């Protein structure tokens, strides 16, 4: 039964992707990407990846859509359908698809317990997590402790991307800057005059943010963690900004606080690593943080997840404000 | 079950190539970025497909429950962080597109190129 549902969802996924590429109305395309992400999240959930499904739903269906709408408001709403070499591209894509499908026949079938990917380090993680770290969610344990270096690197990629966006959009405007009749975000800005979105939004925002905090601090026990929590809290504040306007949201959470969150989160993560060295262990070795190695691991994961949450939330909000501010200063 | 054993991989292939088509055939820069995020999502699907184990459940250990089969946590960790990195890099791309619009007045690739050639 589940497999039929999965096949149905995957087929819908393909149809949505085709529709996204075919439409020349970019607004429609962006809205369809939201649906695409939600379908993808449902697929992830069927495939037992609860943490990833939560992330995809918060980021893909929520924040990506808002960012694309922000970019559309500053550029154009319609695509001019001038595509050269359409048949050549179709030919290349068709041939590559066939080659890749031919290659899939060598893949182990879905759910095969003997697939090579399940025979290497994964069983070790599953066996050792209860003894070494003793938190229920193995995904959080691997993310925070066993592969903490990777996560620190990813966090710095987010930090770097955020700095890049601020540099690119913070500068002087070019000669074609006035928004020529485009309206996506501007329309949303006037949401404050619509009664129903305003009341429903105000009712929802506290619960969205509360849910974000729950995800942050419950990440060791259930699906969740800093990445998801940061995205969910950011989504709640973005909703507030859409309802009450950009300036009001910046009054609630000023830009300097967001900068502090982005940089402070990444530094908090790094500081835990340095603390490990100072206490006689290796970089990002949490076992030495307290006398009890297992408790040390748990404290380390708690702190680095907090750092991740701060950076992700701050970075997403700064990026959103960068797009929104560029439109408003016309 | 056996019949659909490779269906996820076929969907991965097709979605990947739909995204790739948008990147190479479409002239609109926003559409290219949308194509790129579809391409990226397809890769996520490939990884998450590989984590599934028959009869498995999400890798969250419950005390006192034995004989549980867990799906593989490792691909999930990789993709979880990749999704957040993906949105950050997409935002960077969108920021560049916004600046291109302000500098050239268009976000169509060919028009930008012809403006460049005229100068």
Classified by CATH, the class of chain B is Mainly Alpha
Task: Look at the helices and sheets of chain A and give the structural class.
Answer: mainly alpha
Q: Tell me about the largest β-sheet of chain A.
A: none
Strand content of chain A: under 5%
Please give the count of helices of chain A.
13
Q: Supply Rg of chain B.
A: 20 Å
Low-pLDDT runs of 5+ residues of chain A are: 179-184
Give the end-to-end Cα distance of chain B, rounded to a whole number of Å. Answer: 61 Å
Oligomer: heterodimer
Biggest sheet architecture of chain B: none
- Described by the principal axes of the CA atoms, the overall outline of chain B is elongated
Query: What structural category do the secondary elements of chain B indicate?
Result: mainly alpha
How many DSSP E strands of chain B?
A: 0
Could you give the order of the helices and strands of chain B? HHHH
Number of domains in the coordinates of chain B? Answer: 1
Question: Can you put this structure into words, describing what you see?
Answer:
The complex is a heterodimer of chains A (330) and B (119). Chain A is mainly alpha-helical and 330 residues long. Chain A has a domain at 137-330. Chain A is built from 13 helices and no strands. Chain A has helices spanning 2-22, 26-46, 50-74, 86-104, 122-132, 138-146, 148-170, 184-189, 195-217, 226-244, 246-252, 255-278, 293-328. In chain A, helix 3 packs parallel to helix 13 (293-328), helix 6 crosses helix 13 and helix 7 (148-170) runs parallel beside helix 13 (293-328). The N and C termini of chain A lie far apart (55 Å). With 119 residues, chain B is an all-alpha fold. Helices cover 71% and strands 0% of the residues of chain B. Chain B contains 4 helices and no strands. Chain B has helices at residues 7-25, 29-51, 73-104, 109-118. The mean pLDDT of chain B is 90. The chains are: A mainly alpha (330), B mainly alpha (119).
